[in-house]
User: Which sequence fits this backbone?
């Protein structure tokens, strides 16, 4: 951090993000794009950042909220990297009990090249709602945008895992993402790539839960 500049309150960023997502999932103007295998993908157009789309995923998971959250935590403290290979590189820059600041390189495909991000992953178990995990982009002086890989920006990115009344071993996942992939990717490609990646992510989580990965990990 440059001399004379106060360090950002990363935990406050996480909490503000959580409140924003809890409000967004209650909105009624989402348009359904896909509903398959118990995973529902919705979208709404937005002008935040560059014109594009914000996506909302909803799915029921067969684990308690606290366990579900572990499947989305990156690095050695979570389960995400044990079953997903979309993250090519992961480096924890700073860690506390509540959040991880991380630099990641995300695998692309034959249409979209690799992207990198600097994010704050933070969350906790919350008896009132269930649990949550946020992962928005931040700026960090040690990891500026260098052009390659292209820097993606997660304007909004996070998941909440809501309690299911009468069944403590289930939860309802809601995820919201508004991601600027950067570069010169045509808008039509962005609109197809992002929901596809989101659907694949939740499908992989549901399969890992079905395989009881959380019971096989020390």
Assistant:
């Amino acid at each position: 951090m440059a001399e004379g500049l106060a360090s950002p309150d990363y935990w406050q960023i996480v909490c503000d993000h959580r409140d924003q997502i809890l409000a967004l999932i209650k909105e009624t103007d989402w348009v359904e794009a896909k509903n398959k295998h118990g995973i529902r993908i919705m979208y709404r157009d937005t002008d935040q950042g560059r014109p594009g789309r914000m996506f909302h995923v909803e799915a029921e998971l067969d684990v308690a909220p606290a366990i579900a959250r572990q499947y989305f935590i990156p690095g050695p403290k979570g389960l995400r990297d044990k079953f997903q290979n979309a993250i090519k590189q992961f480096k924890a820059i700073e860690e506390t009990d509540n959040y991880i600041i991380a630099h990641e390189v995300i695998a692309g495909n034959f249409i979209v090249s690799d992207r990198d991000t600097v994010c704050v992953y933070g969350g906790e178990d919350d008896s009132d709602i269930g649990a949550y995990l946020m992962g928005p982009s931040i700026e960090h002086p040690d990891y500026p945008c260098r052009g390659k890989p292209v820097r993606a920006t997660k304007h909004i990115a996070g998941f909440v895992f809501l309690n299911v009344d009468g069944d403590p071993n289930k939860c309802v996942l809601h995820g919201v993402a508004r991601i600027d992939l950067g570069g010169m990717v045509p808008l039509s490609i962005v609109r197809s790539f992002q929901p596809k990646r989101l659907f694949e992510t939740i499908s992989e989580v549901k399969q890992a839960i079905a395989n009881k990965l959380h019971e096989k990990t020390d």
